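As practice, study what follows.
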Amino acid sequence: MRTLRIAMAQIDPTVGDIAGNMRLIKSRIKEAKKAGADLVAFPELAVTGYPPEDLLLKPRFVSDNRRALDEIAKECAGLVAVIGYVGQGSEGGGKPQGGSVVVAGEYELYNTAAVVADRRVIARYSKWVLPNYGVFDESRYFHPGRQVALMTIRGVAVAVSICEDIWSPDGPTPLQAAAGAEVIVNINASPFHIGKSRTREQMLATRARENGVILAYTNMVGGQDELVFDGGSMVLDQTGEVITRGKEFAEDLILADLAVDAVARTRMVHGRRKRFTAAMAEAVERVTIKTLQRPARRPRTVSPLECPLEDSDSVYCALVLGVQDYVRKNRFRKVAIGLSGGIDSALTAVVAVDALGSDNVLGIFMPSPYTSVESAEDVAELSHRIGIEYRTIPITAMFQSYRDALASVFQGEAVDTTEENLQARIRGNLLMAYSNKFGHLVLTTGNKSELSVGYATLYGDMAGGFAVIKDVPKTMVYELARLRNLRGPSHVIPKRTLDRPPSAELRPNQKDEDSLPAYAVLDPILQAYVEENRSIEEIVAAGFDRATVARVVALVDGSEFKRRQAPIGIKVTHRAFGKDRRMPITNGYRNS
């Protein structure tokens, strides 16, 4: 019986840290070799990290990436490694599917997988389908590949593809299967959003079944600016059944022995083998790898089948990993958070503690004349429960000094949001002063609902370096807070913080719902408009009040200038502000 032992190295590389990524890849190659793997697969662009963005415009960066691959290859003896890196020039392949030879330009770049064995690169595959939507803009940098490589490893026909190639039913997968591939190794940097893992697994099952191949899907893990890669690497057999699934939001080395003979039997029964034509042959490079050594007998192995996380759990894990990696990879040690006694700052603080440890999180409480006694008590109680230090800096005197300085200018004018924003900006100044003096990264605490409608103050509560819950709607903030309370031996977020009506406490008896629709109404409207691009008419037809919808849409459209100046934050929804949604600030189009 033919078997192939595959290892999937689910690693957390750092964009631009080529030397560090090289060390990480080498260490996982050694682990895979020790585990008796015939083949080890690494994520897409593992050498450079993903996405490298305009680093790709630096010729030296591309050259350094190529030299690192040569160094990594020296570790590859006794097994095959599939490693994502940036290919250049002829490394993109010279034969387009079904056509004449194309000579690649010297400065053309490719999103490439190197197949390494016997301490050298023996084949390459460059990504065919370049995503150019949402957070992806690969067409800005890369040219599409022109060839597929079909390797014979221990008598098993193995092909390689990269991320989007497997998502497209018209991508290279049918060609690879028709050429005889029994196993397809697909390497990925597939970022997280709610529900993505389910969609991904359903797509992979479909692709495996319709092509009659075993799919080994290796995904990246870790945080990169606003993106979080969730891992969850998996192997699916030719019927679409998941054989093994790796951890989510954690590094992992997933092992599986693939029973390859079953592929041929399934194809015979179901007739899934596609006709291989002469035109197809133009795009296929065949390579036989003969240098592997395997013990005469070895016990069968397969990593545990990890259970997929529920949506709320996955969002919380994404927030924790996103904070952890942003702080670590940007060489911060500690963070500071403005604590208000409200649910947003409480959740942000708890996520930060789970990511960094309580010793590395500082809370700063800045009461104004309108701060309630309950808020002060809740800040103290939260800080005690999660074990962080917090400091109190009253702003009443500073606020009054601002009002005194502006008294002659504002004479005769009614008190309005100007005075409210002054308080927020004083707090922002204090947080940034603390950051400047002690080097703490300031984590902002605003949620997606507030940011959508502009219920936030430029240079005030928007001041900071990283926005933890920027893409988390207010209703989900409460959901995540309750979830986290159920995780530990005791509740970390005080019950009163969860139960009190949300308030900015910038004027007497203020409540969020004085200025906004109830969040239970607001959030579905925002999802329809921001994430689903629905018109006012479509949203009203779904059962919402027309005046409310029109008002919310106007607030969203009028707040783009604020969002453009907000710190980056972690993407968890299908369409986040930032790379996902790029609207012009100067915009004469009205959704009426």
